[in-house]
Amino acid sequence: MSNTNPDPLYKQVKDQIVHAIVIGDLKEDELLPSIRAMANELNISVITIKRAYADLENEGYIVTRPGLGSFVTPINKESLRKKKLSEIRGRLKEITDEASRYYIEVSDIINILKELEEDK
Length: 120
Hints:
By secondary structure, the protein is mainly α. The protein is 62% helix and 7% strand. It has helices at 9-23, 35-42, 46-58, 77-101, 106-118, and strands at residues 62-65, 69-72. It has a two-stranded antiparallel sheet. Helix 1 (9-23) packs across helix 3 and helix 2 (35-42) packs across helix 3 (46-58).
């Protein structure tokens, strides 16, 4: 968690859990820490963790079973990939729109992307 990150803390928690699920650090049917335990571990509000877990459940990443806890659900990686591609497309549209206002060509942006790929 970072106070310098512009995202609210609940979103930072949610994003880190989603990342752990996607890369396989959290497996299907794995039990997540309780809301209170996660809040204590991260030293943040229970309300913040509750919001993150609620968002994760609404987006289908976890399921909460009363009395048992919250568990990772099976994810459809292809569906997740399509969703992320759509999100990236929207962000790239914003970037190309802004770039055109400054007379920056799409080819310049493509070159930047190629440079970034080479730097990996």
